[in-house]
Amino acid sequence: MGQLADAYADLDLGAFDLGFFEDGVQVRRSLAACWDVSFERAAPVRPFRRPKGGKSFAGWYFCATTGEHIGYESWLERDRLILLDADLQVTGVGSQPFWLHWHDGQRRRRHAPDYFVRLMDGRGRVVDVRAADRVDEAAAEAFASTERACRAVDWEFVRAGVPDPVLMANMRWLSRYRRRRCLRQDVADRLVEAFSEPRPLRLGAAGAGDPLMVLPVLFHLLWSGVLVTDVASRLLGSDSMVHTARGR
């Protein structure tokens, strides 16, 4: 209660309003009045833009964490969704969940963050996705104001840029096996036993059965964190060392 009281004493709470959909109707309320809304389940406040002739590509990503499709407006946003989907601390993701309204001293401003993320411990996280070389003055001001608003209600704020190419290549590959249909429990049990001690990916897979049947399950277990390998510094390969995640 003490932290909540401190938060409500923050002057920034009075500086921001949020516009969002509630029961199919768009409402606007003060930040102080809706800090506990489940924005990870909110409908997008605006359509996803598909610029004609542009390099961006809008679409829908099936999120294994939520079992729902989540919108994105660029490949960079899609990649961020993959990383959020694979994050074991993430329990929910909402795309463009609200308009943040404020006055910058000269005019009224508004900004729709790219994602609202709910974490396993109940915390909220607001994510804006933009490559560093595309953050102009207007975007920088919008991100700074969004961070102020998040700080006032104890949400995290992240401006996510371009991910490491090796990490992203590995996660794009594993995301192909994110759906539960890739899991066969009998094969998964054999793989967990095979990788109880670290061993090369191909060797452990061969020990669990026909690789054509085993590998999709193995990749699903790597995606879901049951099995672990180095996805950050080298591309996945037959000699990648794999082991079980202790305690999972």
Write the layout of secondary structure elements.
Blueprint: H1 2-8, E1 17-22, E2 25-30, E3 59-63, E4 68-72, H2 75-86, E5 90-95, E6 99-103, E7 108-111, E8 115-119, E9 124-129, H3 137-152, E10 156-160, H4 165-175, H5 185-194, E11 199-200, H6 201-207, H7 211-224, E12 227-228, E13 241-244
Parallel strand pairs: 9-10
Antiparallel strand pairs: 1-2, 1-6, 3-4, 5-8, 6-7, 8-9, 11-13, 12-13
Helix pairs in contact: 2-4
Explain briefly what this protein structure is.
With 248 residues, this protein is α+β, with helices and mostly antiparallel strands. It has 7 helices and 13 strands. It comes from Streptomyces netropsis (Streptoverticillium netropsis).
The CATH architecture name of the largest domain reads 3-Layer(aba) Sandwich
Estimate nothing, just give the exact number of structural domains: 2
Major beta-sheet overview? 4 strands, antiparallel
Shape: elongated
> How many separate helices?
7
Name the assembly state: single chain
Beta-strand percentage?
15-25%
SSE arrangement, N to C: HEEEEHEEEEEHEHHEHHEE
Helix content: 25-40%
Residue-averaged pLDDT: 92
Residue runs with pLDDT of under 50 for 5 or more positions: none
| Order of neighbouring strands in the sheet with most strands | 2-1-6-7
Q: What is the class of the largest domain in the CATH system?
A: Alpha Beta
Q: Structural class of the helices, strands and pairings?
A: alpha+beta
User: What's the CATH topology name of the largest domain?
Assistant: Trna Endonuclease, Chain: A, domain 1
